[in-house]
Amino acid sequence: MTSKELLLWFNMMFPLVFSIGPGNVMFASFGARFGVKKSLPFLFGFDSVTVLLALLIGYGGTQLMSEYATAFIYLKYAGAVYLLYLATLFFNASPYEEKENSSSTTSPTFINGAIVQALNVKSLIVISLMFTTFLTTQTDTIDSNKILILSGLLLLLALTCHLVWLYSGAWLAQQFASEKFTQIQNRVFSIMLVIVAIWILV
After folding, report:
1. Domain presence at residue 7
2. What is the mean pLDDT of residues 63-67?
3. Which spans in 68-143 are helix H?
């Protein structure tokens, strides 16, 4: 990729990846609730699926999605339902329970991250948009090097973004460390997840 293409890619992908979505809301909430270190397994699970989706879509997944549009719709519903389930957990979480259950067994796992990203319709849309924008010619559609480069760039941007959201959530929790704030924080994240779920459905 040329420097001009890289700049165009960054200008398009940065706001899309850093904007509020299911994953970013979860990263902020887990950073605040469990801290950065205990949330890393969730991050690794999430972004492992990110790069896997990028490779699958880059090597023909966009055409597959168009051929099986009904399956894509069911995936969208499943993702929205899962987000509403997570929102319920956050809304009902007690700050007292969080203090008592702060062991690593209650922190988010690699599998949790993988599930959230696998059902994340926003990511499918963003990745598809990336490839349809930057693989525009017939030659590019079979250019393995360019697919690998775009997938690698996306992974680097995603890891940076998710670490920023994790640290932001953790910093926020440290600045306003109180049981009342923890409860408010959980309910704000819960409402944000509900909004994202509605956005996915609409």
Report:
1. no
2. 60
3. 69-92, 95-100, 110-118, 121-134
Does residue 10 sit within a domain?
no
Question: Around Cβ 52, how many Cβ atoms within 10 Å?
Answer: 14
For the segment 160-193, what is each residue's pLDDT rounded down to a tens digit? 999 999 998 888 877 766 666 666 766 776 776 6
Q: Do the domain assignments include residue 175?
A: yes
Neighbouring residues of 62: CB distance < 8 A, sequence distance ≥ 6: 128, 131, 132
Give strand ranges (E) for the chain.
Answer: none
Exposed e or buried b per residue across 21-43, where buried means at least 16 C-beta atoms within 10 angstroms of its C-beta? bbbbbbbbbbbbbbbbebbbbbb
Q: Please state which of the ranges 108-112, 127-131, 175-179, 187-191 shows the lowest mean pLDDT.
A: 175-179
pTM (two decimals): 0.70
Give me the number of domains the chain comprises.
1
Backbone angles phi, psi at 176, to 5 degrees: -125, 60
Whether residue 1 is contained in a domain is answered as no
What is the domain range of residue 82? 22-201
